[in-house]
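haha ok so turns out i had the wrong file open the whole time. this is the CORRECT one, sorry everyone. sequence first:
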Amino acid sequence: MSNPSRAAVLGSPIAHSLSPVLHRAAYAALGLDTWSYDRFEVDEAALPGFVAGLDDSWRGLSLTMPLKRAIIPLLDEISDTASSVEAVNTVVLTEDGRRVGDNTDIPGFVAALRERGVEKVESAAILGAGATASSALAALARICSGPVTAYVRSEARAEEMRGWGERLGVDVRTAEWGSAAEAFASPLVIATTPAGATDALAPDVTGAPGTLFDVLYHPWPTPLAAAWSARGGTVLGGLDLLVHQAVLQVEQMTGRAPAPLAVMRRAGEKALASTP
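then structure:
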């Protein structure tokens, strides 16, 4: 019997994370009987000690908030993708003891959209300006040929998004949150806001909308996603992003590809269906 291999997701709060469900489903489908995947409540202060205590049975870490930037100084190397947004959500622990960071959220966005037939757009809109918005912007740098309008609540956030645009080579324009309904004329809208933030915008979805990618996954559908679907638009949710970024994590950590996307999605859907 081969030696056990460990992986886990770290963050705070972490109890809600679906990552263990997705990764364990992948291990079972791939026949990786000696692999385990857990969750640990770890904040920024506790992170260095946790990482220092990892032994050679560890193969990988998934990072969620608030650790995606805090992990960077603890790594030996980070990918260009992770560097582009200064955020790491994946760490692979190599056999020679190195810690290599990557960001699978960005290609996860792209892969999820491609799965739904969205490979190129001429313009796009982003609702919000947090950490997820910068990853969304980096994904749009790969598929959007024209301007991206970010709808934000403050000038400080607007300046931040324009800065990310310059860094990522995207023509970012900013607009006040009060005019967010104007985003719905874009062929692709990515909503990166917390639960409830876009609920009041749902009645403003009219005509035949394009594609909405709402990064929330519970409760689902959001009022905005429901209104979008009712009008015949294409809707992607947070589970689409979660599954596609997890597929890439599983492949990197285990060295096995392709990871079982359909199996992982079904496991995630089942877990969400039983969540109160």
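The radius of gyration is 19 Å.
again sry for the mixup
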